[in-house]
User: Fold this.
Amino acid sequence: MKVTVNGTVLDLASGTSAIDAVFAAGFDVPYFCSQEYMSPIGACRMCLAKVGAPRKDRDGSWIVDDETGEPKIFHFPTMMATCTTAIMEGMVIDTLSQDVKDAQNGMVEFTLINHPLDCPVCDKGGACELQDRAYEYGTGRSRFAFDKRHQEKHHPLSDLITLDRERCIHCKRCVRYFEEVPGDEVLDFIDRGGHTYIGTLEDGLPSNFTGNITDICPVGALLDATSRFRGRNWEYDHTFTTSLDDASGSAIVVDARTGRIERVKSGLNPEVNKSWIDDGIRFGHEYVDHADRVRRPLLRKGERFETVSWDEAAAFIAERLRGLSGKDVGIAVRADATLEEGVAARALAEHLGTGQVDHAPRHGRTLVPVHGATLVDVATADAIIVLGDVSEELPALDLRIKDALKGVTPPPLLPHGVPIADLRLKERMPRASERLTVVAAYRVDLMRHAGHTVTVPVGGEATWLEAMTAVAHGERVDEAALAMSRADAEALIASWRDADKAVMILGGFVLASAAATAAADALGKAVGARQVRVPPMANGLGLEVTGVLPSHARYDYRHMLAGGARALLLSGLDPAQDPALAERLRGCELLVVHDMFMTATAEIAHVVLPAASGFEKDGTTLSLEGRYLPVRAAPVDGGEARDLTGVVKSLGEAFGQRLEGRSVRSARRVLRKQLGFEPSELDRLGLLQPLPKVRASVTVTTDEEATGEALRVPTMVRPEYLAYNPHLRAALGDPALRLHPDDAAERDLRTGDGVTVSVDGVPRRLRVVVSDAAPRGVPLVPATPDAPVGRAVVDLDALEVDRRALEVA
Amino acid sequence: MSVLDIAKGMGVTLSHLFKKPVTVRYPDEKVQIKARFRGRHHLLRHPDTGLEKCIGCSLCAAACPAYAIYVEAAENDPENPTSAGERYASIYEINMLRCIFCGFCEEACPTGAVVLGHEFELADFRYQDFVYGKEDMLVGVKGSKWQRREAAAKGQEVRVAFEAPGRPELEGVDY
Assistant:
């Protein structure tokens, strides 16, 4: 469609909004209420422009202006809000005339009538849309001589978000966001007219994605409580990086000041997280600046640790290793290490001559599906089968699934980026919930949005998948195994088969079991569904693909701990929470722990090396869809903390060797050869590459199927760091032991009771949450990197109620 | 240049011989300072409530061409506030070695909290002693860090060797 914006003629697709036409032509209009990926509603009336279009006569020909001979332009009688106006053939948009300027400046004056103008104390000051627009489009004066509206200035919407009701300009972005994006309607306008305010009837904001409203608020009404008054916007160093919190590869912006991370904001990656991140990523950064962090290498001297230099620590390790044969050494890295750190681990293993190198947590199965799906595939799928709790395991995936239910394909990018007003999006759109099937052993959050929900018994995924595959092949099955009638199952299978794009999402519960994974593959093949496999940690797929794996399945991490290694280098892992393993590890001739905190394993180690957090290292990560993404170091003061390449550099110097992977640059030389592209040249959007076939013999370990009637369930926040994240901890409480009301009543337990419970022999201090999400007899405990998602043995009868906690209460 | 010009010039010189000298026997005698002289900063308080005027907005630091100011803000305890409103400066530091006494901070301040006073006797020995914190600049503190140290050591009052007429912006500052 031909559109003329201030004399510039453009050819745009039908359905484009007028505001996008203006921006595409390189002009600007102010706006507060429109927001990328959300419905335009024309609430703020800021994007006014003079709009006109030619009209057709009854005979279908254009009405022609007699003077010029051109089609006559009929202007709308008033200024139009361009965000809610769709373009028409021959439309003429004027944003520069005096009339438009007067209208915009009148709107600025109106908007500022009740705005307190306390910019000097506002955390948004300097990055505020209202401030910028008032400066660009306002006259700088007000005729309003009366008292401004006075409302609550410090209203904690939750422990993580503070609302200043005076500053609110009623753009409705936050209200629409909750309904449209995560589908959790927890905020709304209350009262009318000038008294309107934002409020919630809930206790806090029960959603996993609340923090995004602080990004989209055009004024300083909604603010991140973790960064409240921590600095002004121009004082922060912005680092555009990728979150290593989960495997989504979500783009984030880390704002640091004077060596501290003050806040994490969402970055924009249209094909991955769009501009949304979950609260675990946004608010779970305070551990990085925690006072308890190990900041210098520690060397054991008798019962105590002594602070030493890196050189001394490396010399000690090299000396101890000299007395050991190479194959006695085990090296294990946590699966959120970067690819560069993986190269370093491999290089060290190669130098020592050991095949015992692994990453953990790792499922016994490969994370590379036969027919993989990307996040865009998920967002455009018309049949989605979710096995597990993706809302907690990989929240970005949860939002992409909800996109698919809306049935609106991702918008094509315009010259100015993501469309500001996508007219296909509406408030309260119908969701095609019948497209979504959620299968889990307990009630997961995504079930609220699913048309079909299946609750399987603990560990029953394999049986259910096999039964569905049998139905797909027309074989006889027991209806009990299907958890639905045969006719329903057949209808469901038919809907998957008929779908243009069916996607199956395998969570940790499936991948933890060989039988379930095989059954999922079979069902996927039978109905023609592509697969997304959720890695247990951020870079699990990357470390697998680049081969940070034992030389033989027998030499895996579990084997190392069980006695395969006499010397161990553990990066980020804490197996000694298990008293049996701690006893075993005490017998090691050398135990080196590379971690951020004094974990149980660090306490018994010979050497503790300070590790860099995911915000302090440069590197590359591979997200679950096979997208290589850059990880960039924010200016954070981590003391002498180094990543694994730094460890290998020190050790190499102590050995008198220049090992590959001694620096990020050196590791990237190896990666460039292996991957065929230059990792340092990756841009923020990353590089989506087909995944290589994996040596199946290496990734498949012969583990016996797990048992136990309890479940270790994924959580959005990282439980291992919760104690070091004061704001998140205040908001969410300590890691939860979720119990069915009957189970809790039997043992006289109430929500909030502190308990110590043995999970697979590992004592854990948890907080009881009575919840009917947990099935009867199935306690739910949070999974940790050292005890990933899967089945567990929890004896509720041997549970100890924390006396101290009770006394305090 | 004629002889007349030389004579004129000598005449000017001669006339000054009979005037009162402008030289002051500093520091025994006090220097008279003009009202607009810009010296060490003062952090002011609201005279009625005694609350600090500074709200920790960091605009002075943003305006500072020498990057001499560092501010960290915190939230007021509603029961026992430090400043009016929600926010106050928990750390307010000016590095007097970096400061060029341009007065931009004073111009940028939305509450008139930071005002350049008349003190210029800031000489000291160690770098860290040139970094003035809130405790060194809040209204009521007289003299530079060194002067106060000397006075404390000798058990005397802080003595500054200048006199200034003051100006209205320096609310509550008494020289």
Notes: DSSP finds 27 helices and 36 strands in chain A.
